[in-house]
Each structure stands twice: as structure tokens, then as C-alpha cells.
């Protein structure tokens, strides 16, 4: 197992290099270091000397991928891509283009992101699995048909619509919860209720349909017919046998999502004024702060790869065939 984990970590290195390369290419195709300098210094007060000094201070005066003025291997190593990528692989995020400590801001914003993402994830997981089992229990009935129609309708509507509708109904008209904002501790509960509810509801359609398909695939297996032949009730068959054997495909989606919870939701946090990592990334893109953008993309890639590795490890715990 240890050797397998080491191999997977080594395989992740070229993936991270590729993701980082694409990030650099896309960002600098749309923005030049001069544009970034003007955005940070203020377009009306900048002079060519100020722009040159700012680029030299931040390291943006180096060539992007190839340094013709350097000698030997330094033609490749003495570039913006290599210098900044080495810092990322050492998890040294440095300072933003606005001279803020990126590592400290990530640690501070991780809590608000988790306060939204973790309850949404747990409530949605329990709700989706429970409803899916209920529909499998009454498969082929009007309840099953009507719920599937409702699930498709929920999936067909953009999540942005649910956010706006929820803010209008629950905040502006009924005044049940604040429309936006955030507070730490128990004072912050009222701020996260609406985002969590919308997050659970928006994912209800796709989640129920997916889990229902998993359980329907299991319901006609030989072990289920054997359990019924022994006189077990349909409810016990579902919760004792079908649910347990359906955990393998569920783990594939669930374990991968867990690391990404730390990254927050870009749209949800922006609309509700949550100072999490999602809104942090959006603000950095709007401000053309490349230091934050590359740090967040790299961190997201690392967390996703960790999720894939955790998924493979979890298979060995739930599927004896993998262990053998």
C-alpha cells in the first residue's frame, strides 16, 4: 500500500506541472505584466518608471518560459514559470501582487468556506441517499415517477436562479435570514442557513437520480434475491444489503469531493458575501492578482489529486477483492 501511494504521488507531479503550465499560459494570454502593474498601482497615477520598478519587485520582469539572455540551463530555469512553480511545489505561496500574505489569508478564509460547504455536503449526502432508497422501495409507482420528473426539473434550472430566488423570498420578502454577510461563532448561523439550504436543494435532482441508479443496479443482483428468499423484509434488504454494496460507487464521488470542500463555492460565496476561498479567488481574478490565482489553482489541483488517492485507499477498506 505504501509503495502504491508513493507511485500515485509521483504520477501527480507531471499533472501539477501541466496544470500550472496551462494556468500561466491562459493568464498571460489575457493579461500583460504592464496591465497587472497598472491594476495594482492605479492606472491614472502610474509612470513607465513605476511600472518597471513594480515588475522588478514582483519578478514579472523575467521572461515567461525562455530566457534568451541567460546561459546554459538558466535559459529555462531563470524564467517566471520555473521560479514561481518551484515555490508552489514547496507550498510557499508568498505574497500577493497587492503585498498580502497569501498563506495567512488562505488559513483565515478556509473556516468560512467550510462553514458553508461541510453542512451542505453532509445534509445533501444523507438527504439524497434517503430519498433514493425511498424511491427504490416504491420503484415503478407514481411517487417514483413524480419524484423523477421533479428531479429533472430541479437539474434543469441554473443554481444562480435558486440563489436569487432564495434571497428575494427568504430575505427581502419574508425577512427570515440576512441577505448576505458573515459572522464567526453562533452569530454566523443565521448567515449560513440560506446558502446551505440552497446548496442542498440545487443538488437534490442530480444526487437523487445518481444514487437511485446505483441502488437499482444492485436491487436485481443474486444476493438480493437470496436475502428475499430467506424472508427478509424489503426495507431490511435495502438498508442492510443494497446500501452496503452500493457504497463502492458512492465512495468514488464522495471521497473526491471532501478535499474540494476546502476551496469553497465561487458563486455562492460571492452572492452571499461569505469571506471564503471561493470569493477570494473571484476577487483575485477581477483584480488581476496572478499570485493569488496561481496559488488557488495549484491548491485546488493538489486537493483533487489527494481526493483521488483517498478514493483508491477507501476501496481497499470496503471491497475485499481489491485487497486480495
Structural key phrases:
324 residues, mainly alpha
Task: Give a structural overview.
This protein has 324 residues and is mainly alpha-helical. It has two domains: 2-89, no CATH class; 113-323, MetI-like fold (Orthogonal Bundle). 75% of the residues lie in helices and 0% in strands. The chain is built from 17 helices and no strands.
Question: What is the topological layout?
Answer:
Layout: H1 2-30, H2 33-41, H3 48-58, H4 74-77, H5 80-89, H6 102-137, H7 142-156, H8 159-173, H9 189-202, H10 204-219, H11 222-229, H12 234-245, H13 247-260, H14 266-272, H15 277-286, H16 290-318, H17 320-323
Low-confidence stretches: none
Helix content: over 70%
Indicate the structural class.
mainly alpha
Q: Give the helix tally.
A: 17
- Tell how many strands the DSSP assignment holds: 0
Order of helices and strands: HHHHHHHHHHHHHHHHH
Give the terminus-to-terminus CA distance: 12 Å
What count of structural domains? 2
- Architecture of the largest domain in CATH? Orthogonal Bundle
What can be said about the biggest beta sheet?
Answer: none
Amino acid at each position: 500500500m505504501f509503495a502504491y501511494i508513493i507511485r500515485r504521488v509521483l504520477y501527480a507531479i507531471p499533472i501539477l506541472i501541466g496544470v500550472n503550465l496551462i494556468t500561466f499560459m491562459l493568464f498571460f494570454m489575457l493579461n500583460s505584466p504592464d496591465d497587472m502593474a497598472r491594476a495594482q498601482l492605479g492606472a491614472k497615477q502610474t509612470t513607465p518608471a513605476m511600472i518597471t520598478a513594480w515588475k522588478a519587485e514582483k519578478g514579472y520582469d523575467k521572461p515567461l518560459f525562455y530566457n534568451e539572455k541567460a546561459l546554459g540551463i538558466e535559459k529555462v530555469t531563470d524564467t517566471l514559470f520555473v521560479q514561481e512553480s518551484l515555490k508552489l511545489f514547496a507550498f510557499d505561496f508568498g505574497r500577493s501582487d497587492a503585498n498580502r500574505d497569501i498563506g495567512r489569508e488562505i488559513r483565515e478564509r478556509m473556516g468560512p468556506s467550510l462553514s458553508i460547504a461541510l453542512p451542505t455536503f453532509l445534509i445533501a449526502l444523507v438527504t439524497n441517499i434517503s430519498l433514493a432508497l425511498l424511491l427504490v422501495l416504491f420503484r415503478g409507482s407514481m411517487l417514483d415517477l413524480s419524484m423523477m420528473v421533479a428531479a429533472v426539473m430541479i437539474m434543469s434550472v441554473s443554481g444562480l436562479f435558486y440563489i436569487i430566488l432564495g434571497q428575494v423570498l427568504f430575505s427581502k420578502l419574508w425577512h427570515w435570514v440576512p441577505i448576505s454577510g458573515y459572522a464567526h461563532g453562533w452569530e454566523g448561523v443565521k448567515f449560513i442557513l440560506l446558502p446551505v439550504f440552497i446548496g442542498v436543494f440545487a443538488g437534490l435532482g442530480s444526487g437523487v437520480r445518481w444514487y437511485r441508479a446505483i441502488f437499482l443496479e444492485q436491487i436485481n443482483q443474486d444476493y438480493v434475491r437470496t436475502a428475499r428468499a430467506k424472508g427478509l423484509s424489503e426495507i431490511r434488504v435495502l438498508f442492510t444489503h443494497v446500501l452496503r454494496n452500493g457504497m463502492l460507487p458512492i465512495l468514488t464521488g464522495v471521497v473526491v469531493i471532501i478535499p474540494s470542500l476546502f476551496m469553497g463555492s465561487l458563486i455562492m460565496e460571492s452572492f452571499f458575501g461569505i469571506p471564503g476561498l471561493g470569493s477570494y479567488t473571484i476577487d483575485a481574478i477581477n483584480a488581476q492578482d496572478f499570485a493569488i490565482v496561481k496559488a488557488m489553482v495549484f491548491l485546488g489541483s493538489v486537493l483533487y489529486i489527494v481526493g483521488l488517492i483517498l478514493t483508491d485507499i477507501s476501496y481497499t477498506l470496503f471491497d475485499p477483492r481489491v485487497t486480495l
